[in-house]
Amino acid sequence: MTLRVEEHADRVIATLDRPEKRNAIDQEMIDALHALCGSLEADPRTLILTGSGGVFAAGADIAQLRERTAEDARRGINAAAFIRISELPMPVIAAIDGYALGGGAELAYAADIRIASPSSKLGNPETGLGIMAAAGATWRLPEIIGHARASELLLTGRMLDAEEALRWGLVSALHPADELLTAAHRIADRIAANDPLATQHTKRALRAPRPEHPAIEFELQAELFESAEKHRRMTEFLERRSRR
């Protein structure tokens, strides 16, 4: 088993678990991620992604990549799984400890929220191996940190340490390694306290292409304005305020 999955009512924790290979992403792990996505598409919950053994994922499995052909590239094997993760209804939190490189970095880029430990290192060294980062980095990374910085990282293949990743906005916070998962759960707790449908609609709006705005907000908000949960939550808020 290359992916350990722990399920709760409001969240799922998925741990990449190939410590002997520094959690390199192989076909078995991709298949497991697809199965996990199927579960979370049917029963939306927040997803926390992390890695075992002090590593998030040191990349895709090079032994498998070496044997892949042009037809494999056109299938977008890793990219398809990462797109599916990105498009999950509820937020995805990547808790990054140690290396998140190559395909491992691209998996982290697919998350909505990224936090890291001070020892983390992120980057895409693919060009040094005679390939390119083709599982989302060339379009997700510019959206996250800007075109100039993304170009530098992808064209040089250099790694960012945790402090630089924080300054650049690639991760939103740093936590000691032994507190990283606790910090991820605190974020999930805050998400769980909110209305799930409002959270899902907010994620949809955040992920929508610019030409769809502002129309998409109006339609999603229209649905929320008619919801019983909106009425219940606002009534409780007003009652609390009146008692002060």
Shape: globular
Strand neighbour order, sheet with most strands: 1-2-3-4-6-9
What is the percent of helical residues? 40-55%
Distance between the termini: 54 Å
Structural class: alpha/beta
Report the major sheet: 6 strands, mixed
Using only C-alpha atoms, the radius of gyration works out to 19 Å
* Approximate strand percentage: 15-25%
Helix count from the secondary structure assignment: 12
Mean pLDDT: 97
**Poorly predicted runs:** none
**What sequence of helices (H) and strands (E) makes up the elements?**
EEHEHHHEEHEEHHEHEHHHH
How many beta strands in the DSSP annotation?
Answer: 9
Account of the protein in words:
The structure is a single chain. This protein has helices at about 25-40, 60-65, 70-75, 75-85, 105-110, 135-145, 145-155, 160-165, 180-190, 195-205, 215-225, 230-240; strands at about 5, 10-15, 45-50, 90-95, 100, 115, 120-125, 160, 175. The model has no long low-confidence stretch (mean pLDDT about 95). By secondary structure, the protein is an alpha/beta fold. It is built from twelve helices and nine strands.
Label this structure with key terms.
244 residues; alpha/beta; six-stranded mixed β-sheet; three-stranded mixed β-sheet
